[in-house]
Specification:
alpha/beta, 5 helices, about 50% helix, globular
């Protein structure tokens, strides 16, 4: 199964493609969709949508795992990220890719085995599980790969 993990954002949307077969993981790509800060919100959302649709088609994603939002400080940032998350969910729906949502706690539990794991622990496990030479960068890409791994562990 080919899983697209997506870490929502507006300036940076992390993505990670993971192939899961026979309890083995293979990372085919990871990175970030970047949108310039001084660009109109509508244009940023359009860029995220278009790029995500391109990734779904190019890698033939079969499932998509998206992080649920968790904010406790900056409401304005939360609203902008929620807009980004909305077009991510829309892209999955329009492209016919079943989409699954996971909390940060669920991701940490599935990847590290401990729901209160530190970010560095999650990133180290992502690198190990995917047999990568280096920790994926930016952090958003590592988070997206962790989401894909979480989904694979959840559905098996």
């Amino acid at each position: 199964m080919i899983i697209l993990g997506v870490d929502p954002g507006i300036a940076t949307v992390g993505y990670g493609m993971v192939e899961y077969s026979g309890n083995r993981f293979l990372s085919s790509d990871h990175g970030a969709i970047l949108t310039p800060a001084r660009t109109d919100l509508e244009d940023r959302l359009n860029s995220i949508y278009d790029e995500l649709c391109r990734l779904i088609v190019y890698y033939k994603a079969e499932n998509m795992a998206v992080e649920e939002l968790f904010f406790n400080t900056n409401v304005k940032t939360a609203i902008h990220v929620a807009h980004g998350r909305g077009v991510i969910l829309l892209a999955g729906k329009k492209m016919g890719v079943p989409t699954f949502e996971y909390t940060p706690l669920q991701v940490k539990q599935a990847v590290v085995g401990y729901g209160r794991a530190e970010k560095q622990q999650v990133m180290a496990m992502v690198r190990m599980l995917l047999n990568l030479q280096k920790t994926p960068r930016p952090d958003d890409a590592a988070d997206a790969l962790a989401l894909a791994i979480c989904h694979a562990h959840t559905i098996r």
